[in-house]
Design brief:
elongated; alpha/beta; 21-stranded parallel β-sheet; metal-binding; 35 strands; magnesium ion binding; about 450 residues; 7 helices; peptidoglycan synthesis; seven-stranded mixed β-sheet; Nucleotide-diphossugar_trans
Length: about 450
């Protein structure tokens, strides 16, 4: 049985923000969300979040998540005091039952590292440690001559000799739940900070002859915490670099891995190319041979094999079949669906509309709430007038229709197969198949007309 306790009560003064520190984002997601998601990968029985500053905002983020419970720490009196608040919620009274302690501002500890920590616990206590070239500010791991961990000393309480130790405590630990309850009850605050340190449980474990083991992260960035905007930005780039590395190892081509941002999940087929400055949000899937041009944004998108998205295009909630062509400067909004070899060109916006195979709108058009058949050509400046001020209406354009430039299709209308709509038409009634339909006033020249001039 596994409990996970996440400490998330800090104010984060150095962030200079009204937002609780743990709600600040890394890769488009609150830091605390990262911690909870990584904890869930371990299949815990219970996740307990210790809140304090901004508790209502933190709780609101997880309001619909039944596996998360909250306890409050007020006033804050140290990490040990924070975990003490979670004791009534802990499940399990057997030595095999485990409590894992994580931190809401240390968002990127990977599930594999946490699993290794749980395995290191065995029948005792396990702590996550790391060796740093510059350990200043961190608690030091004090070992016996035989190499066994005997205690952790905080930086401010360390002796001159202890300050030379470069193995540091990350604060993350896995403990047997019944012993942890006992150790927490024995904490004292007679230290430089006047706080109850969670790290003191290591000394209690040694006193009780409970084995203390250490595990280590795979990457240094996993245990980096965020206390300032600078640290937030540094961790963001470290995480983006890691995500880029993983994609490169899968065979994806990134024009410049340092100019790549993933704020969700990206799945790629073979021979996918991604140019500089692109942002991927939500769930994005790129099939074989997809090419993404520079400075594009893709949010919850699935693109079929061979699709090309040219520069500065914005796609959200869209889907394409194979060999579609999009952009540059195109916008596909939720519900946009492009068939095989369909094209949406520059300054075209598509919303809740489907394009059949080989249909195209090459430039300067808005297609909303519409269904296009195959091989439809949409001329420049065409608009589907889908909104009457209260309700949306559908436009249906059947196969092989040609829509002339500067046409307004006032929905609901149907354009029959093979029809041609003359340029400049305002279509207010359905157009018959295989015929030319147009609406234009007669051109005239007004004799004697004088252009107005500005009054002095």
């Amino acid at each position: 049985m596994l409990n996970v306790v996440i400490l998330a009560a800090g104010m984060g003064k150095r962030m200079q923000s009204e937002l609780p520190k743990v709600l600040h984002r890394i890769a488009g997601k609150a830091m605390l969300e990262h911690v909870v998601d990584n904890a869930r990968a371990l299949n815990p029985e219970r996740i307990i979040i210790v809140v304090g500053h901004g508790a209502e905002q933190v709780q609101a983020l997880f309001a619909d998540q039944k596996d998360v419970r909250f306890v409050q720490q007020y006033p804050p009196q140290g990490t040990g005091h924070a975990v003490q608040q979670a004791v009534p919620e802990l499940m399990g009274y057997e030595p095999t039952h485990t409590t894992l302690v994580l931190y809401g501002d240390v968002p990127l500890v990977q599930p594999a590292t946490l699993q290794r920590l749980l395995e290191a616990r065995g029948q005792g206590l396990a702590i996550l440690t790391e060796k740093l070239e510059q350990p200043a500010g961190y608690g030091r791991i004090v070992r016996s001559e035989s190499g066994e961990i005997v205690r952790i000393v905080e930086h401010k309480d360390a002796t001159e000799h202890e300050l030379t130790i470069n193995e540091v405590n990350t604060g993350i630990l896995a403990a047997p739940t019944p012993q942890l309850r006992d150790w927490l009850s024995r904490l004292r605050n007679d230290n430089a900070q006047g706080e109850y340190y969670l790290t003191d449980v290591v000394g209690f474990a040694v006193e009780d002859q409970v084995p203390v083991q250490a595990a280590h992260p795979d990457f240094a960035w996993e245990t980096l915490g965020v206390n300032s905007r600078i640290q937030q930005a540094e961790l963001e780039r470290a995480w983006q670099s890691e995500q880029a590395r993983r994609l490169l190892e899968q065979g994806v081509t990134l024009a410049d891995p340092s100019r790549f941002d993933l704020r969700g999940e990206l799945r790629c087929g073979r021979d996918v190319y991604i140019d500089v400055g692109c942002v991927f949000e939500g769930q994005v899937e790129l099939e074989d041979g997809v090419h993404i041009g520079p400075h594009c944004v893709l949010n919850n998108v699935k693109l079929g094999a061979g699709t090309v998205v040219q520069a500065f295009s914005h796609l959200e909630g869209a889907q394409t079949a194979t060999q579609a062509k999009i952009g540059p400067f195109a916008r596909l909004r939720p519900g946009a669906r492009l068939g095989a070899n369909a094209q949406v060109g520059n300054f075209v916006e598509v919303k809740n509309a489907s394009f059949g195979a080989e249909s195209k709108a090459s430039h300067l058009s808005y297609i909303g709430d519409a269904t296009l058949g195959e091989r439809v050509n949409i001329g420049a400046g065409t608009i589907t007038c889908n909104y009457d001020g209260a309700n949306k209406h559908q436009t249906i354009i059947e196969d092989d229709v040609f829509i002339g430039s500067d046409t307004q299709l006032v929905a609901p209308v149907i354009v029959g197969a093979g029809a041609t709509i003359g340029a400049g038409t305002t279509l207010t009634r359905s157009a018959p198949a295989a015929k030319l339909t147009l609406s234009r006033s007669h051109q005239q020249t007004v004799e004697g007309w004088v252009r107005p001039t500005k009054k002095k």
